[in-house]
Amino acid sequence: MDYGHELTFGSFLTPQNRDPQAPVRLAQASEAAGLDLVTFQDHPYQPGFLDTWTLLSWVAARTERITIAGNVLNLPLRPPAVLARSAASLDLLSGGRFALGIGAGGFWDAIEAMGGTRLTPGESVTALEEALAIIRGIWDADGRGVLRVDGTRYRVSGAKRGPAPAHDIPIWVGAYKPRMQRLLAREADGWLPSLSYLQEGDLRRGNKIIDEAAEEAGRDPAQVRRLLNIGGAVAETSQGFLQGPVEQWVEELTALALEDGVGTFILGSDDPRFVQIFGREIAPAVREAVARERTATGTPPATARRGSAALTLRRDAIDYDGVPASLAADAVEPGDRAYESVRHNYLRSGSPGLVLRPRTAGQIAEGLAYARSQEVPLGVRSGRHGISGRSTNDGGIVLDLGALDTVEVVDPATRRVRLGAGATWGAVAEALVPHGWAISSGDYGGVGVGGLATTGGIGLLGRAYGLTVDHVVAAQVVTADGRILHASPEENPDLFWGLRGAGGNLGVVSWVEIEAMELGDVVFSQMVLDARDTAGLLQRWGAAMEQAPRELTSFLILSPAARGRGAVAQLLSVYAGGDTDAAVGELERLAEAGPLLDHQGYVMPYSGVVQPGDRHYTGGGDPAVRSGLVTHLDDKVTRAFETVSRSGLSYFLQIRATGGAAHDLAPDATAYPHRHQNFLLSAMGTTQASLDALWDAEVAPHTDGLYLSFDTDPRPERLHDAFGANLARLRQVKRAYDPDNVFRSNFPIRPADI
């Protein structure tokens, strides 16, 4: 039985401590030989061995590519809740290079000697089942509430969930008895026995048990990878099974793959020369032989197969079998374990039919071509934070660019930095601190680069730096017809112009290059003011901001009166410079806007202001949002905003100070046109119709433009508010790069008539 798994090869090393660095060198040799996996025995009671978990961590730091795993970790001496957090942490630290090989225990005298509890075979199965529930629950950082598992051997009573691993960690179980095999068929991702422990026919009997149990659980048997620890020797002549020339090894391993479904071969050897032969000679030849046979027989890849329960969740309008091969392995569909972690946005719930996760511009082009052929909604996302929520959908396809998250210095002299569209601004800020640089980027570190850098970017450094789009100097973009273009002032200048303000309408940006500003520490201030005199406070704060130097940027969050508490305003302010005396003076002027209730100030790097945020969102709220730009917070504007705050129809209101350096460009320099307004007003409510009616009656008559990222009103007239006189030119650019209006989920711009 061939399950169609992509073949992988690994080493199974002894963690001996006589020469502590020897296992590390063997792990590095495994990576150099091209192996995919390095594993270590786990016998915590063995004084001649290094502790396996410590060794795994050390090896992860000393390697770059290879996956690491215990083979198998001793559950009776490693409590599952702690093991889950340790595994997630190591996966995060290694960039998703950890696999969890686990066993229920076997050497019970030694386990008892170390303080473990002896279990019967039946108790071991129950214990492992409970442990898997705890491990999965801890990893489910998006799960509702705390984790409770009331087991007979393992229990947790209100454990906090998280952290989520960097990737979907596979769980491989070492099992030899039918009951344990049936358990792993239901709950695990792989079967990991050692060939030396199997009798003739055990492999096929075990596969049969696992296949039947998997199907009963609604899983395709191919969802359980078959791994095998093997041993032997390379010799000039055949001396038995896996005892002979390389050609014999290739033939016998090929048979195990095609006839017994083995997808991963793990060589037990501490001989670096043997490891090298296995990785460089045997593994490639087996891959080639198996691929040749699969082509002849038409064996489908395991990634294309789903269990019966998952198949019922597929959407009829999507051709799942047609997903490009380069994207299939990382694709997520309803019923997959990873689905809950990718379906929603920060504030928007979604139920897409398929999430594609490209890693290159070429894969974006493939995914885009596939999505266009499906005739379902298309969403493109970077950080999944957009308040409008248009990067998820119901029943459609989402291109998730989260894997394109690099931060690379291109030119130190000009402070040019290349940022992957899937990077988050918190990570960018952190990466730029050692250089003494910063890029203005909103107020939350979880926001994705791609969305902000193609829409505007009104951030807490904005008055000193300008909009984020103002410093974009180049971009790579995949257009609707699959071209991968470079956009800059010299290449495709019309596309470059349009990307800086309306990028979501013109293509899928894979990276942008931005010129950062020189910036050391900043002064970050958090004030709370009594806002019962709401209009008066807003007027005084607005006047102070208009008179302030460019170094000062401030955002005001207005909390309406509730439950006997009067309205309050929170000010988040950044003084972009190290002159603390000047900063204190400016902050004191802001504090005069209203009665001061609380104030905290810090001197810190900008990365401390926009800290990296959680990327595991659960949706919820689905708010209606309206926005508007104004030049002054005069009496009419502030009283209108006060009316909204007191209406009970909006639960979150914010005003962002802009202007300063954002005014240095002409309105037609970028697609974003708003170059004279000083403030951005926004309000969030529960229903679009009621918020629209209130906003249109009270605030809209006094506004001059809107900010797309903070607006969910889809009416066509909003495009005029967003782009003003630039809309006509944008329609021409749209016709040139997206004449079929493929990118229409986010305030679609109609292509100009030909």
User: Strand order across the biggest sheet?
Assistant: 1-2-3-5-8-9-10-13
| Fold-level CATH name of the domain at 8-302 | TIM Barrel
Mean pLDDT reading: 94
What gap, in angstroms, lies between the N and C termini? 58 Å
Radius of gyration: 29 Å
What is the CATH superfamily of the domain at 8-302?
Answer: Luciferase-like domain
Number of helices: 24
β-sheet strand percentage: 15-25%
Structural class: alpha/beta
The backbone outline, from C-alpha atoms, is: elongated
CATH class of the domain at 8-302: Alpha Beta
Low-confidence stretches: none
Q: What's the main sheet like? A: 8 strands, parallel, barrel
CATH 2nd-level architecture of the domain at 8-302:
Alpha-Beta Barrel
Could you estimate the helical fraction of the residues in percent? 25-40%
Number of strands: 30
